[in-house]
Amino acid sequence: MKKITDIKGAFTLHNGVEMPYLGLGVYLADNDNEVIDAIHWALDTGYRHIDTASIYKNEEGVGKAIQSSSVPREEIFVVSKVWNADQGYDTTLKAFEESLDRLQLDYLDLYLIHWPVKDKYVETWKALEKLYQEKRIRAIGVSNFMKHHLEDLISKTEIVPMVNQMEFHPHLIQQDLIDFCTKTQIQYEAWSPMMQGKIFELSILDDLAKKYNKTVAQIVLRWNLQKGVITIPKSVKQKRIISNAALFDFEISNTDMNFIDALDKNQRTGPDPDNFNF
């Protein structure tokens, strides 16, 4: 198990960059006081990792929150993603500049290809490689890439992705994909760790929550980290943001880790990376 210490702890990417293993996701947060407040609460709680994307339409708000925070920029790990309509070499370079402009930042800590758009993601990746080599981005990665997408990408490009951000929760583990990423030194990261809220309908986790005197959300997020998976729960509620970070005063036993693993149904709450049309 990778060492889980405290809220500012990180996993090391294959290029040596430290990526905080707990972050705040801002999907669906409004591009105004809602996203600004959420980020301020997160940073005040100790989070040092913020995950946005151009399609979230809130990069401006994220930038304002970072500018107005007392936490120095270099201590905050900022992630954004290139959207599908912008994929391709030149269009990705342009989309990156537009994201930086909206965020009012000089560089990104991590930039991801949001989805594996057929016949485009290789050229998109080559644009990310250029930006990485120019030191405009500290790390580059992908999102929603299955094993065959990764194998194809790696065979046609220079740099192995540092991160693969996937839907990941007790009903969708994809252990074979995790194992492949581990073998190729690609850091696995979870989106939708709470199954878009459906996690709270799994009464089977209530017993574990009682056993550890924690919430179901805390159990699931701690399970993420102990699996070596970076996690970015999203919330705009101050209490939830604080509660989601209370993960460092307990450890789930191997038996209970295996119990949660056994809930896997290969069941998605989001789109299928092999069959999406957006």
UniProtKB/TrEMBL annotation:
The record marks 81 as: Lowers pKa of active site Tyr. Pfam families: Aldo_ket_red. It comes from the Bacteria. InterPro entries: AKR, Aldo/ket_reductase_CS, NAD(P)_OxRdtase_dom_sf, NADP_OxRdtase_dom. Keywords: NADP, Oxidoreductase. Coiled coil: none annotated. The active site is at residue 56. One of its GO terms (molecular function) is oxidoreductase activity, acting on the CH-OH group of donors, NAD or NADP as acceptor. Substrate binds at residue 114. Residues 31-264 form the NADP-dependent oxidoreductase domain. Belongs to the aldo/keto reductase family. This is Aldo/keto reductase. It comes from Aquimarina algiphila.
